[in-house]
Amino acid sequence: QLYRDARECLTLLSQRLGSQKFFFGDSPASLDAFVFSRLAPLLKAKLPNSKLQQHLKSLHNLCNYCTSILSLYFPWDGGELPAPRAAGPEGAEAEEDPHSRRSQVLSVLLGLVAMLGYAFLSGIVSIQRGDTGTVAPTTRRPMALEEEEEEE
How many domains does the chain have? Predict the structure, then answer.
C-alpha cells in the first residue's frame, strides 16, 4: 500500500509539473525546494528496493526537473568536483579555522579555571598562610559525623 501511494504521489507531481521548469513557473518556490529535497535522494541513492526509484526514472519530466536543479544549484554534482583547497603544512583542518589551536588552548584554560574555582568554593581545596615560627590556632577542629549530629 505504501509503495502504491508513493507511486501515485510521484505520478501526480509529474502531472502537476507538466513541461514547466518549476512548479509555479520559471522561478523556484519553497514547494520546489521541498519536492527536490525528497526526489533527489530517491533518484540518486542506491536503494535496496528500487521499485519506487524505477518509477521515478520513468517520469522523465521529474528526472529532468531534478537534473536541472542539480546543475543549476549544485554544478559539481555528478561530474566535476570543486577544486580541493590546498592543504598547508598543518593540513586541511588548519585552513578551515586558523585560530583552532588558540581556541583549544583557551578552552583548556577556561576549564582549568572553572575546576579550580569549584574546588576552592566548595572547600575541597583551601590555602592556608603559615607564619614562620608560630602556629595559628584552629578555630574548628575536625568532627566526626556523630559529633556534628549531636551538636545540632
Answer: 1
